[in-house]
Specification:
The structure is a single chain. The protein is of the alpha/beta class. The chain has ten helices and 17 strands. It is globular, with a radius of gyration of 20 Å. The termini are close together.
Amino acid sequence: MKALQLEQPKTWKQIEIDEPDAPGPGEALVRIHRVGVCGTDLGGYLGKFPFFSYPRIPGHELGVEVLEVGPDVKNVQPGDRCSVEPYINCQKCYSCERGLTNCCEEHKTLGVMCDGGLTQRMILPARKLHLANNLTYEQSALVETLAIGCHAVDRAQVKEGETVLIIGAGPIGLSALEFVKVAGARPIVADLSQKRLDFVTTNMGVNDTILVAGDDSDIERLESLTDGRRADVVIDATGNNRSMAGALNMAAFGGRVVYVGITQSNLEFPHAPAMHRRELTLLASRNALSGDFARIIDLIEKGTINTDPWITHHAAFEEVADVFPTWVDPESGVIKAMIHVDG
C-alpha cells in the first residue's frame, strides 16, 4: 500500500509499504481518511523540529475508520469513526503510573519518533482510539490540535473572568484560544502577522489583539487593554526563544506563564525584576491527556466549539509533495490543512 515519507528535510518520497498484519490483543486495524497538518509537520519538513528523525512517515492528526479489532477489544468496533490519540506511552514508567501519560518517559508520538498516518491503513493500540461517530473525518483529525490547547489551558488553571494573553495565532495558539473562551476568560491574541490577527477577529470573535513589534510598545499595548495590570495568564505558542523569554514581562503580578511552543534554544530572562518580583508561576505544557479527547469530541458535538473556521486548505495524497512547500509560508493563510488519504 502507498505511504508518504519524508526521506530527509524538504524531500518527500511516495513509497510502497507492506499491508499491516491482523490486529492482535488490544489492537485495531484502521483506515486513514484524513491527516491534519500542524506545526510539528511543518517543522519536520524544514528539519527544525526537535525529536523528529528521518526517514519518517509523518501524520499524527488522524481521522480514521475502524476496519477490524483484536479479540479482546471492547471500546471500538468495525465501522466506528474515531479520532486518534497519537501519544504512544509505555504504561509502566513512573509518569504513566501517575496518569501523566502525555510525558511518558518512553513516549513516542506517531509521525515524529515513529511512523505515522500518511498511509492507507495501520495498526494502532485500541486504547488510543476515541469514538467520534457524530463527527466528520476532518473534525476527528482536528481533535488532536484542540487537545494541545485544552491541556495548556488546564495547566494554567484559567478561571472565569481572567485575562489571558495568547502569543502566537497559529493552530496551537488558536486551540488554546478555544479553551480560554470555554473557561469564560477574556482572550487577547498577539502575533507578528496582521493577517492572522484579522482571522481571529473575524472568525473567532476576539476583540483585543496586539500586532507584535518586538519592543516596549507591545507591553504598552497590553497595559492599555488591561488597565495597566497586564495578563493573569500568558500562553506562549510561538516556539521562539525570544518570545518565550519576553512572555514573563507580559504577566501580571502573581500571574502564570505557560510554554506550549517548543524551542531547541536556551531561554534567558532576568530573575529578580521579572520572575521573582512578580512571583510568577512558570509551566510547561506537553501533548494532552486521554480525557481531553473525549471532552473535545463532546464539545464539538454540542456545538460549543465551532470547527468551521479551522480548515482552510485541502490536498489529495498525490498532491502533498507539490503543495506542502507553500503551506510553510505564514502568509499563505493556512490555519489547518487537511490531506485526503481515502483509498
